[in-house]
Design goal:
This protein is of the alpha+beta class. It has 29 helices and 16 strands. Strands 2, 7, 8, 9, 10 and 11 form a six-stranded antiparallel β-sheet that branches.
């Protein structure tokens, strides 16, 4: 059984509550007793430990201290020049203060004054700095949150938006770092052995290790270290640790491929982790397919030559050199994992690796004048290219080619947004292992990220009928797929099937409760959502759904209490604050509602519904001038919603700007022809400009509204309208 593992590119990517706002120093505890303190390895292996510290793996994650910044970063932080992101119209300002790093965000209004200013401390740095570094904040609930600004080494070092953030509606300070992203940048945190299952809240312990340590490649080392301290015989000692060099070719490659094999970082899925396996449960030497399965786009769909940041092994495995070597060409043919060579030393090392197979052929080509004298094979045969998913990074393409691809491989490229017209829609095929994959996980891969819903749903249904698995996971996968396809009734059946196999499976309890809530079956939905909360009290989607259900039942006190609990777990959750504002408005607590909407806007300036709610609270207390720009912002952010347009029409009409009000009412009616308030507003605006014919027609429409108050107002105005 399998759990979905999201794409784990270098950034695309947090445990025990702590009142401390800064992480404590130290390497942190290891996950289980089988793991040793990574510092203990250096006692017996000082040379390897010394050179390994300079590798990118060792520097993949660190605390954000002044000493951790490279010279370019330090200079940019000291300069504190705001970075302007045009697409979202926001400024991001890096700051250093008393030895601590911060990132400040603000906007400017039409007069140039700062608005929506907020600041977060940078607690950790993700990335070695060879190509880039992304900054992380630890929130009070111990999530790790990715910052919207990253440092890139290109052109001497500069700031640009983090991957996935270079668009108008980006994550800002709300993207949590999931366990699978952390897995490839760090050692073993003190987490439960099952951490990383589908739906797990990514919460991290206070103490975190810093960087990939020896045990990622050599396996748990506690027994080895203990035996070494007892002067155990060398042969017995070696049996207590994994030496990848003694593994067969496939197992050796898999040690590297646990992190460096990513078919794509865009939705597919790239891989799914086996159900029942924790995120940190892989052990070097075991078949990688026992831990995780990898998938790819179908051949012939135009995705064969994709070049992405974590696809080193994927590209290498496409090379004729690799295919014809029959296992002799591996990652370690060119790379010493204990030592990172740079400059001329690296050039010589890679050229020597090529010569082991091509020396004789190269000599003949050189003698005939058909090839330059060998100096740097990689420049032509493994050219540096700009990656498609992290567009500010240039790195070596590990697909070994006879000639470089045509075109400017370093040309700037815009970030690709995954939209309905761009996202892959087609079969998901097995990649690794390429054969013998069970039909259940293969069927689930079709639907987990909606790549192949139409064909995948019947495929998964057939596999379930055939194999009838005992666990709930595949039934849950099918339920989610049915829901994504708009088949709510079928989804409810599959949620119920999952719960027959495991009544305490929290994701299915929440899913069933949410589906019933969407059908307004509150009597069934609320107990299920309450059960889901008891099973996983930190799951904010459950809390949000439960709060909405309470509001629909008129239980505003319960809704507010639930949302306050959610806000503690997810302090930057703008949707939580927006829903809290609605609850306060419904309960008549105007000041509390206003504060909640204002907080939602602070955390997510582009949340249209928060601007709408905030504007409504301001208008309710008579501050129409302050309300107007927020309603204008709501309309600009969500032009497809009729309610903000009707409210904007009202605000314009109040200022007697009927030429502005009338188009807003008309567009609201176009979006919702039965929108009684918009018909009523348009009628009043039209009558105010002397257009009595339009006023009468709109009042007649409003009089037919199912809302009795609107219908009555319309009939009264019809009686007052001059003939």
């Amino acid at each position: 059984m399998y759990a979905p593992k999201t794409a784990a590119a270098i950034f695309l990517c947090v445990a025990l509550a702590s009142s401390c706002s800064r992480p404590k120093s130290g390497t942190g505890p290891v996950a289980q007793a089988a793991y040793a303190d990574p510092r203990s390895c250096a006692a017996c292996h000082p040379a390897q430990a010394r050179t390994y510290r300079a590798t990118g793996m060792a520097r993949a994650f660190t605390r954000a201290t002044p000493a951790a910044f490279n010279p370019s970063e330090a200079a940019l932080f000291a300069r504190a020049t705001p970075f302007f992101h045009k697409a979202s119209n926001r400024f991001y300002q890096p700051l250093l203060r008393e030895g601590r790093a911060f990132l400040r965000r603000f906007e400017r209004d039409s007069g140039g004054a700062e608005t929506n200013a907020i600041e977060y401390e940078i607690h950790y740095i993700l990335g070695s700095g060879n190509h880039s570094r992304t900054y992380l904040h630890r929130d009070p609930a111990n999530h790790l949150v990715e910052m919207p600004l990253s440092w890139y080494s290109e052109a001497g070092g500069s700031f640009a938006m983090s991957p996935g953030f270079d668009n108008p509606a980006h994550y800002d300070f709300r993207r949590k770092v999931n366990y699978d992203c952390f897995f490839c940048h760090n050692g073993y945190p003190d987490l439960p052995s099952t951490a990383g299952r589908a739906g797990d809240e990514p919460v991290y312990p206070v103490m975190l290790p810093e960087g990939i340590d020896c045990q990622r490649c050599h396996g748990p080392g506690a027994a080895h270290v203990e035996a070494a301290g007892k002067k155990t015989a060398p042969e017995a000692l070696r049996k207590l640790i994994t030496n990848p060099a003694r593994l067969n070719a496939a197992r050796q490659m898999e040690v590297c491929m646990q992190c460096h094999l990513e078919t794509t970082s865009f939705p597919l899925p790239n891989s799914i982790q086996r159900y029942g396996r924790g995120i940190f449960s892989y052990r070097p030497g075991e078949p990688l397919g026992d831990y995780i399965l990898h998938f790819d786009h179908a051949p012939g769909t135009g995705r064969e030559e994709k070049f992405e940041i974590a696809g080193h092994a994927y590209r290498l495995r496409q090379s004729q050199c690799f295919l014809k070597s029959v296992g002799r060409l591996r990652c370690t043919t060119c790379h010493n994992p204990h030592e990172a060579r740079r400059g001329e030393a690296a050039v010589e090392q890679y050229a020597a690796a090529c010569a082991t197979c091509h020396e004789a052929a190269l000599a003949k080509l050189t003698a005939s004048g058909r090839h330059a004298k060998r100096t740097d094979c990689a420049t032509c045969h493994m050219p540096r290219r700009r990656t498609e998913d992290v567009v500010h990074v240039v790195m070596t393409d590990h697909k070994i080619v006879r000639r470089p691809p045509p075109g400017n491989l370093l040309a700037p490229r815009a970030e690709r947004l995954e939209t309905a017209g761009v996202s892959y829609r087609g079969p998901v095929v097995p990649y690794y292992p390429a054969t013998g994959m069970d039909e259940l996980p293969l069927a689930s891969a079709q639907v987990l990220q909606k790549s192949n819903l139409a064909a995948g749903i019947p495929q998964l249904e057939a596999a379930l009928r055939k194999q009838q698995p005992k666990g709930p996971e595949y039934y849950f996968d099918l339920a989610e797929a049915q829901l994504a396809a708009g088949h709510r009734g079928a989804a409810i059946e599959q949620y119920e099937a999952a719960l027959r196999h495991d009544p305490g499976f929290a994701p299915a309890v929440r899913g069933l409760g949410g589906a019933l809530l969407a059908q307004n079956e509150l009597a069934r939905a609320v107990p299920l959502l309450e059960q889901a909360r008891s099973l996983d009290p930190r799951d904010t989607p459950t809390l949000l759904a439960l709060a909405r259900a309470y509001q629909q039942q008129g239980r505003l006190t319960d809704s507010i209490a639930t949302l306050r609990a959610a806000a503690v777990i997810e302090p930057t959750g703008a949707s939580i604050q927006e829903l809290l504002g609605n609850a306060f408005m419904a309960s008549g607590e105007a000041a509390q509602a206003e504060a909640a909407f204002r907080t939602a806007i602070l955390h997510q300036p582009d949340l249209a519904t928060a601007h709408y709610g905030y504007s409504a609270t301001l208008a309710a207390r008579g501050d129409f001038d302050a309300a107007l720009p927020h309603m204008e912002r709501a309309v600009a952010l969500a032009p497809q919603l009729p309610q903000p347009r009707e409210m904007l029409g009202n605000l314009y009409a109040r200022r007697k700007q009927f030429a502005l009000a009338i188009p807003q009412y008309r567009e609201a009616i176009r979006l919702d022809p039965q929108f009684g308030r918009a018909h009523l507003g348009l009628a009043i605006a039209a009558a105010s400009t002397g257009d009595l014919r339009t006023a009468r027609a709109e009042l007649q429409q409003a009089a037919a509204s199912p809302d009795p108050a609107i219908s009555q107002d319309a009939r009264e105005l019809l009686g007052q309208l001059p003939q």
